[in-house]
Structures
1.
Amino acid sequence: MSLKITDVSVRDIRFPTSRSLDGSDAMNATSDYSATYVTIETDGGAGPTGHGLTFTIGRGNDLCVAAVKELARMFVVGRSLDDITGNFGAYWHELVAGDCQLRWVGPEKGVIHLATAAVINALWDLWAKQQGKPVWKLLVDMTPEELVRCVDFTFITDVLTPSEAVAMLRRVAPGKAAREQEMREVGFPGYTTAAGWLGYSEEKMRRLAREAVEAGWTHLKQKVGADIEQDLRRARILREELGWDRKLMMDANQIWDVDQAVSNMRRLAEFDPLWIEEPTSPDDILGHKAIRDRIGPIGIATGEHAHNRVMFKQFFQAGAMDFCQLDPARLGGLNEVLAVVLMAAKFGVPVCPHGGGVGLCQYSRNVVMFDYIAVSASLENRVLEYVDHLHENFVEPLVVRRGRYMPQVQPGYGVTMKPESLERFSYPDGAEWRS
Ligand SMILES: C[C@H](O)[C@@H](O)CC(=O)C(=O)O
Ligand SMILES: [Mg+2]
């Protein structure tokens, strides 16, 4: 019997991270990591529930909550799960394009697309729970044809067609079982941003970097962009702690113009950064390409603010991105993530998803496992971001061993929060905010 979706509710959950400056960067000095948290109920409460979220950094949550309510009313409540997942790509298209009045406030970008992510990811969570598998395993066990049916190829067929995608997936299928076993045994390589937040003092940063090295991390990311002299000083401290065999990455969070990015990165080049992330406006594809051409061999990483598959298509076509940092809650949920993962494989760009936000590491570990096992079949230049705060609020803990992510075990997409956390951090009425 198919599950019938009988209700969708949405909560505004905010964590006061601005008090400790966790998550701070040159553009976002005081962010409160927040989740627009969606719950899908089935069969009048008698069936399983699906949970999804989108990430904001505070006040924008009000807007996302309102957008989720509209999408849920129009496209989710009253539907059967089998009807949705039977042709998930077509359903996704209906959600993003089926109502011209909602589409107008995107299209496929901004608040409405963030809300799409929360709803779509909650549907994936529900489907995976119904199937008794974590999302990565649900994906890995699909045939190429089943996977491709989950993708909406609208606007990307000039670079990737459904039949090409099927052929790509078939080519790597013979090694899937071995790669799955490898992931279960040794996990997926990660990097930590936990020491590098811009608001942390230099003493704290040094101490956290030292602890990160002791814990086995081989890659660490530093926030830059507020002041170049400070950036140089902090990079020196990090190199003293990391040595020169470990990798150092830098993230400017969109703060520079193109020429500024070039001159600042030429100065920071002495610290041998693997990449500079979001050196300028996230929409400036040709600007990224110009920076890349002028500061090589430093790589260009971007994507956490690239709002849809068409942006990624152009970054790939322009040769403007060396590391694809897709964000699982900024793209319109997992269906669109699949489109980007497939295009990245075709263009040979490694996928290193964005994890800096509440719930993003949880989603992204499913994405990288799937990408490695079933799509790219490569670990070259691939690392998944790790931030260390707020994980205690989720039902299933993240497991990281010596800097490597272990696969999610429980069924679903991994972002189900503990009831007590939902109560405490509900905005504005939860205990955390009332006080
Ligand atoms: C506001 C977020 O913490 C942002 O700094 C995250 C980010 O850029 C990253 O993790 O990368
Ligand atoms: Mg970033």
Note: Residues 5-132 form a domain with the Enolase-like; domain 1 fold (CATH 3.30.390.10).
2.
Amino acid sequence: MPDNKPKIILASQSPRRKQLLEWAEVKFEAVTSDADESFSTNMPVEEIPVFIARNKAKAVQQKLNSDAIILAADTIVVLDNKVINKPASRDEAIEMLRLLSGNEHRVITGVVLLRDNKEVSFADVTHVVFHKLTDEQIIFYVDKYKPYDKAGAYAIQEWIGVTGIKSINGDFYNVMGLPVSRVLQQLKHFTATL
Ligand SMILES: Cc1cn([C@H]2C[C@H](O)[C@@H](COP(=O)(O)OP(=O)(O)OP(=O)(O)O)O2)c(=O)[nH]c1=O
């Protein structure tokens, strides 16, 4: 039987996002987006990851000139309304984890589905509380796991998350980079309206 479902392209080089979509048994092709990830400092924090995800999706759409569904996402960590990006150095990673230690922060993933000029977007928020972390724990984690490609300098799915997180409220997979079940729901709606 011919498969009339539109092709899905994941505009990402993130191994976590690929893994999550594979776990969801979604058929897709991944294409790296070289989009600019900068944003205006006046932008409300909730809008930032959707704005960046849209730029990633558009960059891949232009690169491929394709009518596939492009799926892009961006994850940020927000503490006291301040965005914590990926750490640029060992010192910055240590500093970020000291700030997160003993506190609650938000992880926001913006998701954009794009096909031709039709778009669906949303932001998913998960609240995460870290136990108080010692400097010994923080330095061990940073030196062993080198979390330089992770927003907030940590991965919930690694040692620091497994041992250092007190509670989460919201979707775990959103923290890992993709709120998979919500993405699947939206993909279903989106495909139905095409
Ligand atoms: C907070 C947190 C982030 N992360 C990851 C998810 C994202 O991949 C990354 C944030 O950076 P992003 O810019 O969202 O994604 P990326 O650069 O890895 O990939 P691409 O732009 O190509 O899609 O941090 C975790 O894996 N675990 C966590 O607990």
Note: The pocket of thymidine-5'-triphosphate is lined by residues 12-14, 16-17, 56, 74-75, 77, 107, 149-152, 154-156, 161, 175-177 (CB under 6 Å).
3.
Amino acid sequence: MTAATTPPPGTDRPAAADIHRGLAGVVVDTTGISTVIEASNSLTYRGYPVQELAASRSFEEVAHLLWNGELPDAGQLREFEARERAMRPLDRTTAEIVARLPETCHPMDVLRTAVSFLGAEDPTEDDGSPAANRTKALALLAKLPTVVAADQRRRRGLDPIQPDPSLGLAENFFHMCFGEVPAPEVVRCFEISLILYAEHSFNASTFTARVVTSTLSDLHSAVTAAVGALKGPLHGGANEAVMHMLNEIGDPAAADAWLTDALAAKRKIMGFGHRVYKHGDSRVPLMQEALDRLIAADGSPETTRLATLHTALRTAMVERKGIHPNLDYPAGLAYHLMGFDIPVFTPIFVMSRITGWTAHIVEQSEGNTLIRPLGAYTGPAERHVPAA
Ligand SMILES: CC(=O)SCCNC(=O)CCNC(=O)[C@H](O)C(C)(C)COP(=O)(O)OP(=O)(O)OC[C@H]1O[C@@H](n2cnc3c(N)ncnc32)[C@H](O)[C@@H]1OP(=O)(O)O
Ligand SMILES: O=C([O-])CC(=O)C(=O)O
């Protein structure tokens, strides 16, 4: 809560005590999709702890749960998977747009443009109904990995690889990026990251999607805006920033001194801190375990160096500031070890969060109220335009 100048009463002039910068601590609506349970530091999707979902379910099952409120039975899952697999290929124009965007732009810009273009093309009747929105959402879930993979390949000077409908979403993504599917433990680590990234209540990008939806705009407009919000390094962009930071530090023995300098320079340490979790992100232990399995399976000197550096920085940050890592800290290094290029990390987050965003778009549409807060005016008092 931050006081501005003493505000006179009237529209857009709330009392100073009512100003909540960054909406910190403000409850803006109800939601039935997910919640953080502070007492147990756990996160539930539609009531199920995310740890239990990550232990035994596929990302596709979690997407079904977020959208429909229940886990699918065997028949529902078969149908859901068949529809997702059928929608993966890009039409020629979308593929050409992805191929022609400048390689100097960030892959999140490519994804944002692709979502916007797919919206212009989408054949689904735009009545804003939950059924129409779920169909649009499924098409995006299916196509976004194809866009991300094709974009990574063109930047490496390679042709796109067509999706393989015999593979699940996670395996198919590796196939489209690298032309091969890695060991099951690697795919599982990736799938766990997708499950953990899928949904997190009223975070900045989801809230963005809800704001756009609240004007009765369409799903693709809301998702396009959400991609833009996720790109920033204070939000989803942090998983890339973590890897850039580790590369900047380089030597594990330098972590402590680097942190001293960075904190003295008032730099934000990427992958640490969180608006909601003040004693540690509920998703980190599971992602860190998955990362540790990747590290153990690799064992190369380069991986050992990175793992030692990662641990050294985490230990120093927790000791010095009492600020814990968020999900982006282990996920960033995990994506690097899986072979993805750094600028693809946040697009991978999008491939997962598309489920949460669109669940919220449907929820917002079903009980809509226009989202329009007030700002406390601090500009000049009313005055008159001088005679010309
Ligand atoms: C999936 C996700 O989006 S998770 C978030 C990913 N983002 C990052 O990792 C970026 C780095 N982290 C941050 O910038 C912040 O922790 C945020 C933006 C995530 C949360 O910010 P807020 O809730 O506004 O935290 P807030 O600013 O109140 O932090 C409290 C104090 O801790 C400090 N702090 C918080 N996080 C960090 C950090 N990563 N590095 C250094 N200091 C930090 C703040 O500077 C502040 O110090 P002060 O009281 O001396 O001013
Ligand atoms: O909840 C937040 O503010 C950010 C976050 O961790 C997420 O979106 O997963």
Note: The chain has two domains: 34-232+349-366, 238-337.
4.
Amino acid sequence: MTPTPEEVQPRTDAWLLEIDHLRVSYGRRRRTHTAVDDVTLNVGAGEAVGLVGESGSGKSTIGRAVLGLTASSSGRIRFEDTDITSVPAERRGALTADLQVVFQDPYGSLNPARTISQTLTEPLLTHRAMTAEQARARVQGLLDQVGLPADAANRYPAAFSGGQRQRIAIARALASNPKLVICDEPVSALDLSTQAQILNLLADLRADLGLAYLFIGHNLAVVRNLCDRVVVLYRGQVMETGPAAQVTGHPLHPYTAALVAAAPVADVAAQRERRLARVTVTEPLTVAHSGCPFAGRCPHVEDICRQQRPARVKVGESVVACHLFPSGKGDSHTSGSVDEKV
Ligand SMILES: Nc1ncnc2c1ncn2[C@@H]1O[C@H](COP(=O)(O)OP(=O)(O)OP(=O)(O)O)[C@@H](O)[C@H]1O
């Protein structure tokens, strides 16, 4: 029997988040643009899943659909066994206090007219029904947890640097004791040393609190360090998914390989080699409606790639959607068709 995508992903205690054949389109009628195209992915309790792909691949749209900020065109989203697909964002909060978000922009995501204490207290009163006294104590605990001084509570966002504001945004996400935090490019707007501090903080919080992350990013090195599993998106479709070390160290899909090659490395000679390899991802785009979306840029393209969407095929611990890995071929223990299409 053909295994379902769930069966080929390592199972933790239970899936916190299940995204099943999600499709999101923007626009109307003939101007419709499908930003997310039949995406299936799950996040288990305490698991960190990285969602990577270049700009415009649909990463944030998936995050926004989970949060109810963007409507799904089809498919299902379940959180803690509750179907939240059609629940509007304003009602989703009550259903999903266990699901929180940290956005990219630490400047735009905090209300400049509210003190940090006011910002952090609100979710405590709303979701956790705390008394004012309990909330005050919790705010101090949260500030300590994210490495900010106690007197930060009475100040306004303008008094803080970008990195400090991101710590405040993280504290706000933690306030309701979530199980899953969607991190939408949380360090992209920060300088390199601040990025490292925030990433360390996220890793520590995950270890201390048993948090799960859906970590949206385009930096493969960051995702490899922070995440257990990686999902590689291209033009709204999943190209490859598997253990982070496997996907980033031994990519199967030519697109993943190109992403890995394009990622900066410290070694100058190695970087030069990678620049040469990057030629394949800077070729002009051609739209592949029925075939593989990467066909127009793929160095291994064959006729079938332009004609047929590749099946999802299990290869070792990864799942790849590429005609280089035809279903039914290869070692029966390591390879097999997972689904009819990506
Ligand atoms: N509100 C919108 N209306 C119309 N099209 C949109 C909207 N938001 C996103 N898109 C389009 O959907 C596609 C996916 O965008 P999305 O922001 O999800 O990608 P992304 O991978 O997160 O990119 P980035 O890394 O630049 O944030 C893009 O082509 C984008 O132009």
Note: The CA atoms of residues 22 and 75 lie 4 Å apart.
